[in-house]
């Protein structure tokens, strides 16, 4: 592989301090590439009414972030967008100044649209990653619901036009890639995991002292947290569950009211936005991770939970089945089905400790192919115009023999060892 350092411009419509999958991926990508010696620049919206190029430190690495003047979308509590009437001029100015080898857009929306327009004019290679699903934005447009189907068609037609400018198009999972090809008519979309550094997270193999259900992510409508609260309300009292909801969003107050109405507010903690350290501690202390969302192209939050050794109960929607296998590392349930969600959570919480340990180890095993270093390798190759094969992120089903080996593992807190048959893991004997 060519080791010559690259100059890379990553173009975002959402970036730190925003907390969401697309922003988190962009941070990890920029930091990872910087750590490998590349000259990384990020173009993103400003959050403080200042425009300029700043040296910023994210995920332990320092790189240049070109902040653009922006405005908050009035129907959303945190979304900000760079001024659209200046995006082309700003994109051209930045591209001409830094002379990137590649422009990597993270969406077809405002910043990606402007940067790709100017990159085409200047003859700069474009790579595009799609994190977009209309369901994530339509509820904040103010459009009446009867118009949504037409809006979706128009949006995908627009996405096709912008993404077609890219030499390579990626999205986080094969299911998401198939969906993108179906909606746009594009072909050859690569399935490249957002990647995660699993060693940043700490599974616990201590016997549980309480049953904790964890969710982390944006507290918005498509996450369907109302379904989770309804499910918690019908769980048997003897389970004595506690619920940790980490994250913030426009649905927090309605959900707090719902928890009070259901009589479970004393068992549900809304943590809001927390530090990475606090998030990892909540995950370590959890018993099961719940993801009822219907609009996940990968779900970095679910991957973080898997790296923390948690069984997963997730909606059988979009890319979540790519991460969750029934009776191996958790359960899937029909989206929106309160009774089914409650049933799957109860199944996990009633597992004997040795069977719970099997699910914990299965989550750790399933997350290994999503290593961030593999993701960085693939994007480096795409930036250079090299032919790639999409990484395989599926793991083989648990065999009876391996399942029994997992059952026989003995706990040892926060140690390291090796999986049976040579597979590396943070599970312990």
Q: Would you write up a description of this structure?
A:
Residues 206-355 form the Glycosyl transferase family domain. Keywords: Glycosyltransferase, Transferase. This is D-inositol 3-phosphate glycosyltransferase. By secondary structure, the chain is of the alpha/beta class. It folds into two domains: 7-191, Glycogen Phosphorylase B (Rossmann fold); 198-367, Glycogen Phosphorylase B (Rossmann fold). The protein is built from 14 helices and 18 strands. It has helices at 21-35, 87-98, 110-122, 148-163, 174-184, 225-233, 252-262, 276-285, 300-307, 320-323, 338-349, 353-367, 372-384, 400-407; strands spanning 7-11, 39-45, 52-58, 61-68, 70-72, 80-82, 102-105, 125-129, 168-171, 190-191, 211-216, 241-246, 268-272, 288-291, 312-315, 330-333, 417-418, 424-425. The strands form four sheets. Strands 3-4-2-1-7-8-9-10 form an eight-stranded mixed beta sheet, sandwiched between helices. Helix 1 (21-35) crosses helix 13, helix 9 (300-307) crosses helix 12 and helix 12 crosses helix 14. The longest helix is centred in the middle third of the chain and has 16 residues, at 148-163. The radius of gyration is 22 Å and the shape is globular. Residues 410-429 have low confidence and may be disordered.
CATH architecture classification of the largest domain: 3-Layer(aba) Sandwich
The strand count comes to 18
Beta-strand portion reads 15-25%
> Structural class, please?
alpha/beta
Strand order of the largest sheet: 3-4-2-1-7-8-9-10
Low-pLDDT regions: 410-429
Computed over alpha carbons, the radius of gyration is 22 Å
Distance between the termini: 38 Å
């Amino acid at each position: 592989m060519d080791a010559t350092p690259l100059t890379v411009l990553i173009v975002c419509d959402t970036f730190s301090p925003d907390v969401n999958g697309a922003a988190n991926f962009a941070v990890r990508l920029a930091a990872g590439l910087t750590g490998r010696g590349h000259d990384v620049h990020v173009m993103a919206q400003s959050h403080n009414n200042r425009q300029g190029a700043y040296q910023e430190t994210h995920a332990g690495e320092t790189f240049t972030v070109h902040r653009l003047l922006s405005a908050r979308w009035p129907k959303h509590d945190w979304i900000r967008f760079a001024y659209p009437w200046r995006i082309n001029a700003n994109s051209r100015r930045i591209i001409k100044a830094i002379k990137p080898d590649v422009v990597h857009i993270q969406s077809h929306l405002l910043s990606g649209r402007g940067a790709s327009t100017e990159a085409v004019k200047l003859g700069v290679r474009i790579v595009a990653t799609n994190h977009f699903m209309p369901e994530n934005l339509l509820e904040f447009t103010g459009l009446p619901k009867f118009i949504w189907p037409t809006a979706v068609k128009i949006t995908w037609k627009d996405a096709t036009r912008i993404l077609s400018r890219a030499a390579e198009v990626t999205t986080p999972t094969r299911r998401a890639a198939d969906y993108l090809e179906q909606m746009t008519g594009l072909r050859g979309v690569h399935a490249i995991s957002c990647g995660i550094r699993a060693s940043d997270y700490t599974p616990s193999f201590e016997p549980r002292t309480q049953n904790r259900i964890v969710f982390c992510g944006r507290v918005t409508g498509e996450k369907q947290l109302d379904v989770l609260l309804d499910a918690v309300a019908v769980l048997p009292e003897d389970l004595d569950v506690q619920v940790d909801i980490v994250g913030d969003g426009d649905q927090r107050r309605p959900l707090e009211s719902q928890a009070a109405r259901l009589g479970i507010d004393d068992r549900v903690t809304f943590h809001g936005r927390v530090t990475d350290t606090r998030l990892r501690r909540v995950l370590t202390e959890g018993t099961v991770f719940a993801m009822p969302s219907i609009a996940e192209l990968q779900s970095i939050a679910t991957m973080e939970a898997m790296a923390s050794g948690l069984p997963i109960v997730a909606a059988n929607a979009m890319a979540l089945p790519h991460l969750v296998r029934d009776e191996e590392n958790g359960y899937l349930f029909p989206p929106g089905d309160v009774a089914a969600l409650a049933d799957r959570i109860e199944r996990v919480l009633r597992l004997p400790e040795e069977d719970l340990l099997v699910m914990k180890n299965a989550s750790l095993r399933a997350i290994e192919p999503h290593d961030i270093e593999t993701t960085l390798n693939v994007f480096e190759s795409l930036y250079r115009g090299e032919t790639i094969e999409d990484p395989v992120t599926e793991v083989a089903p648990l065999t009876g023999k391996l399942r029994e080996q997992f059952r026989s593992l003995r706990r040892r807190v926060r140690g390291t060892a090796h999986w049976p048959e040579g597979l590396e893991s943070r599970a312990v004997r």
